[in-house]
Amino acid sequence: MFNGPGVLHALLLAVVVGALYALRKRLPGTRLGRVREHPGSLVERRRRRELLALECTELLLAGVFLIVGGAKLIGQRDMVELFRSIGVGQWLRYVTGIFELVGAAFMIVPLASGVSAVALGTVMISATLVELFVLRRPPIAAMACLSAHTYVAWSRLRRPVTAPALTALTSEPEPIETPTTESQSRAVETTTQPIPTEAMVIDLAATVAPLPTIETITV
To answer: CA angle at residue 22 from 37 to 106, to 5 degrees?
Structure first.
């Protein structure tokens, strides 16, 4: 990192981030510059705000590492003195600069920003250890970048909740139908079958006994 970042570095970072924003809007998988007519549900609005915050963080990280990696490659005086203080050699400055430039380029792409955050996070872990045990100074900038890389990697690489899972959580459970056997279905059919009215008519001629005939006695 720069020893004394000032106003010029902030202006340069703003210009670089603005250019990356214009480039990012043309890439697939981004929400930047997309106007949504219907606001949608509360969950969709919250998810959209989270994605916008994530993409702004990615653009800021990409701008920072483009500037810092470029400064290492062109041999800026602060970077040369930094790696001279480490005592390994200037070859490490070139390797780190190339690694940071490649990671910043992949950070611009939404589909590759998670992997880039993991790769650049390992660089920041090494920078934190170097500043703590070699340079003997607090690694404020390295820890800030490491926290941002952790946020991007966690947000991009975790498994999102899909729409069918949300539907299954919010929908009501369907009633469970118990299977019935053939004998049970036949018993139900016989009990529910209507009795015909003809069977209820009593045959009076068959049930009523015939009256005895009275024979007349002739004298």
So the answer is: 110
| The one-letter amino acid at 142 | A
Residue 85 tokens, joined:
């203080």
Residue 57 has pLDDT above 60, yes or no: yes
The CA distance from 64 to 145, in Å, is 9
Q: Which residue range is the domain that position 122 belongs to?
A: 7-159
Cα–Cα distance, 117 to 151 (Å, whole number): 9
Distance CA 48, CA 44 (A): 6
Whole-angstrom CA distances from 86 to 42, 83, 90 are: 51, 5, 10
* Residue range 70-86, pLDDT digits in tens: 999 999 999 999 999 99
* Inside any domain, residue 176: no
Global confidence as pTM: 0.68
Between CA 115 and CA 154 the distance in angstroms is: 10
Neighbours of 51 (CB within 10 A): 16
Query: Is 36 among the domain residues?
Result: yes
Is position 28 within any domain? yes
Residue 174 maps to a domain: no
pLDDT for position 3? 60
What is d(CA 69, CA 93) in angstroms, rounded to the nearest whole number? 9
Q: Are 110 and 55 in contact (CB under 8 A)?
A: yes
Cα–Cα distance measured from residue 121 to residue 99, given in angstroms and rounded to the nearest whole number: 11
* Total structural domains within the chain: 1
Burial class (CB in 10 A: 0-12, 13-18, 19+), 117: buried
